[in-house]
Write a structure and sequence with these properties.
InterPro entries: DUF4269 (IPR025365). It comes from Ornithinibacillus massiliensis. The chain is α+β, with helices and mostly antiparallel strands and 177 residues long. Helices cover 46% and strands 21% of the residues. The protein is built from eight helices and five strands, in the order αααββαβββαααα. Strands 1-2-5-4-3 form a five-stranded mixed beta sheet, with helices on both faces. The chain starts with a helix and ends with a helix. The model has no long low-confidence stretch (mean pLDDT 96).
Length: 177
């Protein structure tokens, strides 16, 4: 299992600062009942200046979760939240700025290790281990405004209509599972 927090703690100065922000915010402890997991580009070392800290959670009581995140984070800079639907799944998203980082809290009624954000991160981690030479190309595309999954697909020549789905299919084909 990819331990994104362990990577941050021992990583670059920016990764260590992100680790400190997460620790100071106490978000993982405060939201522990929702099984929070840090995902995204920062633990992978492919972040760009505008990259945020994505924390995914398993949420079944949307009303309780919403009350909790509002009570904990409404005083943070640029706080906003919304309830929406992504790929047919109901989700709650909260965003705010804290300790030099933009945070995105994401909750849906799916175990965190089954959520696409986590699955993408694991596949991207394996791809970067297997093909370290692609890291700079992915970062360059991200600096040009290309999202992470489309950047990986472009660099790897993965063809398809949906880079988010296509990356999952590709990862399953080469890594199994």
């Amino acid at each position: 299992m990819f331990d994104s927090l362990k990577v941050l703690k021992a990583g670059s100065k920016r990764q260590q600062k992100a680790y400190d922000a997460i620790r100071k915010l106490n978000v993982l402890q405060d939201l522990a009942p929702y099984h929070p997991v840090l995902c995204g580009t920062l633990p992978l070392g492919i972040d760009v200046e505008q990259s945020d800290l994505d924390i995914i959670m398993e949420v079944h009581d949307y009303q309780g979760f919403t009350k909790k995140i509002i009570s904990l984070y409404q005083d943070k800079k640029d706080f906003r939240w919304k309830e929406t639907e992504i790929r047919g799944e109901r989700v709650i998203k909260a965003n705010f700025h804290y300790f030099g980082f933009d945070f995105e809290l994401f909750g849906q009624a799916v175990p965190t290790d089954k959520q696409n954000a986590y699955r993408h991160m694991v596949i991207e981690h394996k791809l970067l281990e297997e093909y370290p030479q692609i890291k700079e190309q992915v970062i360059q595309l991200k600096q040009q405004g290309v999202k992470t999954e489309p950047a990986f697909c472009q660099v790897l020549g993965i063809q398809g209509n949906d880079p988010y789905k296509d990356l999952l299919v590709y990862g399953k084909a080469i890594f199994g599972g």
